[in-house]
Each structure stands twice: as C-alpha cells, then as structure tokens.
Inverse folding.
C-alpha cells in the first residue's frame, strides 16, 4: 500500500512540475510572444492586416496576396501561464543593423557579405556598400512566424531586387544649366557619377519602396544607408580622368565668365562716368541759355545791362585789354 501511495504522490509531483510549474513563463522588455494551441495561434476575431494601417503602402492587388490574420500578442511582463497543449513563440523586436550585402542563406555570397554587385544603365558593374536597420513588425507577427519560412531571406531578397532595379534604371534629375555653358551631357550622363551625386535620393527611394515590407513579411526596414558606390578599378581610373578633365574645363569656363563679367562691369562704369562728365559740361550752357532767354523776354535794356556786367567781370580778370578805336 505504501508503494502505491508513493507512486501516486511521485506521479502527482512530476505532473505538477512538468505541466503546471513549467507552464509559467515571462516575456522580456524587448520581446513579444504569441501563444499557439495545437499549433494554431490565438487570433483576434476575424481581423486581418488589411484592417490595419500597416497595409496602406500595398496596392489593391498586393492586399489580396498579403492578407494575414491578426494574432493576440503577449506584451512584456508576466508571469503568464500556458497549458501543456500550448506553446509560446517569443520574438525579439529590438532594432538590428546588418550589412546590405548580407545573404542569410549563403554567408559567403557577395564577398562574404561585404559588397553587393549591381549593373548600371550604361552596363557598368559596380559594387555597393551600406547598412540596413530592421526590426520585427509587432503588428504582423503572423507573417513573420507562420506566413514565411525564412523572413530574413525574403526581406533581403526583396531589398536587393528593388535596389538593383533602381540602379539599372537610375536617371539623375535634370540640372539647370546657365546660358553660355557648354554641353556637359557626356559627363553628367555617366551613371556612376549620377548615383554618387544623388545618394540621398537613392536612399529615400529605397526607404519609400521598402515601406511595404512590414505588411509583406512582418519586418520593418527602419532605414537604408547606402554609403559607397565603387566601380571596377579599370573603370575607376577612366572615370577619374574624365572627371578631372571636366573639372578643368569647368574651371576655365568659370574664370572666363568672371573675366568677361568684370570687363562688362568696368565698361558700364566708364560709360556712366563719361555720361556724367558730359552732363556736367552741358548743364552750365543750358542754364545760361535759359537765363539769356529770360533776360531777352524782359526787354533789350536788361540784356544790354547783363552783357555790360559780364564785360566788367572780364575786365577785372584780364591783364591786358585792347580797345578798338575809330580813326
């Protein structure tokens, strides 16, 4: 009898430890959890990701393909309890940074995950380097846990395909060319130059295109930072020579334009000075003519008096005076 009681109490203690005490769990601050019952996640009614703003970047066709049920997310804290037939899937939602050339399925690819190759619109093979910040989307854990076999591979594949498509079709926005500047389309049209000058636009385009990754794969791409665009060595040397020649031509054109502008300003200033001098010489004559006209209108006596006064003023200044006499 004691043996049977001992077995009973032993079984009871094992059952409590195995299925009750072991069923208590907690969730860390940077984690979220999803509970499954017989492999099926706990869902929130009939709600799907289509009812969530996370699907706003998707088109109508994409919304039909990326429609995932919304599951009940267990927040940080605890203790929580689960039954023996239930399982808890914990996911870290901390933001992480990886090299944009990282391949989750083949770490040795892309020069051991350090350089991503892409082809430009003028058929130049170039290497891209940079980083990606990502995190798991808390509002679409179903896609991350159950919808996709390898979410990291899907996200990286999607990012690389969008980036290569953008590199292959990238065209720099037209720049305003001042009048008189020679045609520099041959230099501006070089795709690698355009890409290097418009890195900010390229990064912003990637952020915009990858905004739908949360609804697609349950992962949020927080930021894309492309830092380097490096062509092959043989192309780099030729590109450096072209850029040097272009910079020299631009410098010569700028100096010539500055010299021409300076001469134009000097010529305008000289014309203004000569015009002022001519006005200064004409002004006394104009005033004198107006004064004589006014005197004439007052009668011949006033004009004779004016002429006499002028003669007297001249006599005072003269050293010798010759007077005509009639004989």
């Amino acid at each position: 009898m004691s043996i049977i009681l001992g077995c009973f109490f032993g079984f009871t203690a094992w059952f409590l430890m195995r299925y009750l005490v072991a069923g208590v769990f907690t969730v860390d601050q940077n984690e979220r959890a999803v509970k499954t019952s017989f492999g099926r996640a706990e869902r929130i009614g009939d709600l799907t990701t289509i009812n969530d703003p996370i699907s706003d970047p998707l088109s109508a066709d994409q919304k039909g393909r990326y429609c995932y049920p919304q599951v009940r997310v267990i927040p940080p804290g605890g203790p929580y309890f689960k039954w023996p037939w239930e399982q808890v899937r914990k996911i870290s939602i901390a933001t992480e940074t990886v090299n944009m050339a990282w391949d989750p399925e083949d770490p040795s690819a892309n020069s051991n995950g350090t350089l991503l190759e892409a082809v430009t619109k003028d058929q130049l093979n170039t290497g891209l380097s940079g980083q990606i910040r990502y995190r798991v989307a808390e509002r679409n854990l179903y896609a991350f846990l159950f919808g996709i076999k390898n979410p990291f591979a899907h996200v990286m594949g999607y990012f690389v395909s969008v980036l290569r498509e953008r590199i292959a079709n990238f065209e720099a926005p037209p720049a305003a060319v001042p009048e008189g500047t020679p045609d520099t389309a041959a230099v501006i049209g070089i795709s690698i130059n355009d890409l290097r000058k418009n890195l900010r636009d390229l990064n912003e385009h990637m952020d915009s295109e990858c905004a739908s990754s949360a609804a697609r794969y349950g992962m949020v791409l927080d930021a894309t930072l492309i830092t380097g665009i490096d062509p092959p060595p043989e192309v780099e040397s030729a590109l450096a020579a072209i850029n040097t020649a272009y910079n020299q031509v631009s410098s010569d054109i700028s100096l010539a334009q500055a010299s021409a502008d300076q001469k134009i300003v000097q010529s305008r200033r000289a014309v203004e000075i000569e015009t002022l001098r001519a006005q200064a010489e004409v002004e006394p004559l104009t005033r004198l003519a107006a004064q004589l006209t006014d005197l004439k209108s007052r009668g011949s006596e006033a004009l004779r008096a004016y002429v006499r006064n002028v003669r007297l003023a001249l006599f005072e200044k003269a050293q010798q005076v010759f007077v005509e006499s009639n004989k």
In short: The chain is about 50% helix and 20% strand. Residues 263 and 269 are 10 Å apart (CA to CA).
